[in-house]
Amino acid sequence: MKKRMKKLVAAIVLTIIMAVGILPIKSSAAFDTGVRDGVCVVLGILVDAETGVIYDGGQGSGFFIGDPGSNPEYLITNHHVIDTYLTYGKGEKWQAELTDGRTVYVRASIRVYFSSVEYVEARVIDSDDIADVAVLRLSAPTDQRKALPLHEVSDSEIGSSVYCVGYPGVAENFYIESNSKWNKEDASVTSGTVSRLITLKGTAVKAIQTDAQINHGNSGGPMVNDNAEVIGINSWGVNVDGEAENYAVDISEVTAMLNRNNISYSTSGGNNNSNPGGEDGTETDTTTPPAPEKKGMSTGLLIGIILGALVLIAGVVVLIIVLSKKGSSAPAPAPQPAPAPMGGGATMAAPRPAPQPSKRPMLRSLSTQHGGSTFPVGNTPVMIGRDASSCAIVFREGTAGVSGRHCQVAFDAASNSFVVTDLRSSYGTFLMNGTRLPANAPYKLQPGDSFYVGDKQNVIRTELG
After folding, report:
1. Residue 413 and residue 387: Cα distance in Å, rounded?
2. 366/389 Cα distance (integer angstroms)
């Protein structure tokens, strides 16, 4: 009996240790959902001046900055999200010819969406195409969103948690009927860690490498830390042979721009501008906000304690049952004979072997700027072009012959073929023999075939890996 009690005590101690081990995991810092209150959808588009039809543009995310507790009017996004606005007259009326030969008049516009039906227009205060950042301003402060604090990350924070916030799939939501409403709660979050801090060769732009996934449409959204402070602007990803790394522009690239324009913003230590006031010179209150009120026990810690207690109780109960059974002198039940064959002499069918994984369809870019990177493709089309907010295979701005959304490729499992569709690109999508594919007409390619977008330097090969 004493041995049994010793075993019981030892088991209880072990269970307590296991339960305590759970607590740090459950009580660790987690994403602050209040960050979503500062994030929005940003569209830089061409709009028909008469009908309001949208023809082209970039889509992404953005986040607001400003003084704590005040309605914000400034927001940050990527330069490439509003590049269409900058390229096509910044709101001036333009004459454009459509691919069907019609001539229309269009205006470029930047729209900041608070929901799918509510938006306001913004203008560009400053932008940097090299760093890929832009500062926008609404016509008036808004109570629809709040300002997020900024924080410049350091080497000591490598390995710390980060969260990438935004509206992935913005292009699909915009052109296809969707349940997404672009409200604050519709913003999605991916998590990871700060992998390293880098300075891009040839530009001196500071960036943050992370294993957190940055999806299409996240461009321009905030990368935040456990303290809900923005440390970077989600910008781009690189996929090489299935291994993906994602990058955000370091927030220091933005603070330099804000300081240059005397735009007020906040950090964890309060207002960070010595001469705030915005571009119009209006003075802004620089009083350091009061320290946040200390809160009681966090929800994560409480959940951890409850789960730990449940594990402890369950472990004790299971152990008591096991020990009580071991103390019984009843013999173990004899093994039962195998079931007899089913009626008519039939026997049970042998189990089928586990299905072997089929080869994965993928696209390999042979362009020098992608270095042979591969991109998985399935039933959902993979878009190719210069628009980083909607394309999976992204060509740099200025790449010869490549449109913003040039073409798309899907995989048809039934015919084991790849389906390429040109999206009314300016310079065309071509087979390797020089044949140009008709716009919006799906064309099937077999694994191992190649095609190019606009120029023979931009070759894409279909593969089954």
Report:
1. 28
2. 22
